[in-house]
Amino acid sequence: MDILQIVIVIAVLGLLVKPLGTYVYHVFSNESNWTDRIFSRVERIIYALIGLKKREGMTWKTYALSVIAANVVLVAIGYVLLRIQGGLLLNPSGNANMESTLSFNTIISFMTNTNLQHYSGESGVTYLTQMAVITMMMFTSAATGFSVAVAFVRGITSKGRTIGNFFEDFVKGHVRIFLPISFLMTLVLVALQVPQTLDPTLVVTTLQGVTQHIPMGPVASLETIKHIGTNGGGFFGVNSAHPFENPSGITNVLEILMMWALPASLPYMFGRFARNRKQGWVIFSAMMALFLVFVSLTYFSEKAGSPAMNAIGIDVSQGSMEGKEVRFGIAQSALFTAVTTAATTGSVNNMHDTLTPLGGIAPLAQMMLNCVFGGKGVGLMNMLMYAMLGVFLCGLMVGRTPEFLGRKIEPREMKLIAIAILAHPLIILAPTAIAFMTELGKGSISNPNFHGITQVLYEYTSSAANNGSGFEGLADNTPFWNITTGLVMFFGRYISMIAMLAVAGSLVRKTHVPETIGTFRTDNALFTGILVGTVLLIGALTFLPVIALGPVAEYLTLR
């Protein structure tokens, strides 16, 4: 029954890929289609308000600067609101102003779509900042990521000379994708008993006669964009393990599909842009193959239970249920864990810190690879980056100039791809080493052995991959952790984003090369295997040693 649950959810996802991918293609194709009749009037009003009279195409530099400028404005507004939230309206719990380094970490976290929280949601922010800062940035950061991904796809597939207009893409992402889907799913979650209210905390009397104050608030609206936008920040400290955020198995499946469906549909969208749907299915197949390996590792590791518990005779017939909700069990906990790190969402319905050592490798590895579906388009961009790298390596083997989608991959593109590939492990491994050199013995790292290595490594991997989930066990609300993870989130978001836009800007200017008998095909099963192999090879070369020091070493000590 457990495996059947997982298979059914994956099957439903498969049914959603084509219609959603087609819809996203229509939204961003800049060609007249049926979505214009529904949304164009609203968009014209917004364009008039922001002064966007001519929606001309941008160069990659202008596009990147527009992304950064828009993000800077939103960061400034959000930071100020967090710093003064204690004196503003809609603060029924009387929460105080947020401390400066925590405000810095929080605003960077939500602007970069990471949603790492060094505070507990119900006590760290007010109703106003939950809506005006946290929820607002869940929309804007998701739309920003989608816009950049679409611009990148245009650059490598278009025969024109532009990658699009950021502000037009940004508005369309909100109006045609995130707002309508979030509105509908909010109504569904409310119908399934997820709270949506501005009332103060609920006061109840327990069976023991004690008065208890239960935090509530506008939970359902945050919960939908949290998953649809692959954000992950929780209204409550325990995130989607809380019964108000995720009350049943039905809501659990819905939340899995919400955070998985859009990222999984983007490869199909890419195939539509490339005028070759096989190209999209190759990317999707590579992502799904990797995902199935990792979800299987998590499920079977958790189902087998902890070797230490097995050795002392504890009943583990249900598997390792430590840190998991009984209403979800092993199957839905393992699937949620795999999806939330594959889609870089960061929402959790169980405590990852309590996963078995091998079960904990899967979420860690997916964030290190950062291309297994991914969120907001980052997975698609990174997988296409690996596709170009795979084509380049194959070209070197046969002595032919590599081509991808009719454009030559030359030194400039490979240098930019190398920057994106090398930056990711650098901003993970360097801060991890610094943390152990400076923080060990100060009390913030609660577990100084192999598990402690995994905790610190997970914190920075989650930050760099803009995931936001935590292994916990760290006393991370300190200036050191707030500042270092804030910087890692910033660099993890914008270095690769700018590098990929530069690649798109370079390729869009190149003359299309006609396909010949010697052209290396990238739309068949062979290239799917090459793509998976390239991802695993690069991942193993960069991260296998540190994984051996953490979860692998912990697993061996428990045998």
UniProtKB/TrEMBL annotation:
Per UniProt, what is one Pfam family of this protein?
KdpA
Q: Which top-rank group of organisms is this from?
A: Bacteria
What's in the keyword line of the UniProt record?
Cell membrane, Ion transport, Membrane, Potassium, Potassium transport, Transmembrane, Transmembrane helix, Transport
Q: How is the protein disposed in the membrane?
A: Multi-pass membrane protein
Q: Where in the cell is it found?
A: Cell membrane
Q: Where are the transmembrane segments?
A: 6-28, 63-82, 127-153, 174-194, 249-269, 281-300, 377-396, 416-437, 480-504, 525-549
| Statement: the UniProt record of this protein carries the keyword Iron | no
InterPro entries in the record: KdpA
Q: How does it assemble?
A: The system is composed of three essential subunits: KdpA, KdpB and KdpC.
Q: Which family does it belong to?
A: Belongs to the KdpA family.
Q: Which PANTHER family match?
A: POTASSIUM-TRANSPORTING ATPASE A CHAIN, POTASSIUM-TRANSPORTING ATPASE POTASSIUM-BINDING SUBUNIT
Q: Which HAMAP family match?
A: KdpA (MF_00275)
Reported function: Part of the high-affinity ATP-driven potassium transport (or Kdp) system, which catalyzes the hydrolysis of ATP coupled with the electrogenic transport of potassium into the cytoplasm. This subunit binds the extracellular potassium ions and delivers the ions to the membrane domain of KdpB through an intramembrane tunnel.
Q: What is this protein called?
A: Potassium-transporting ATPase potassium-binding subunit
Organism from which the protein derives: Paenibacillus mendelii
UniProt gene name: kdpA
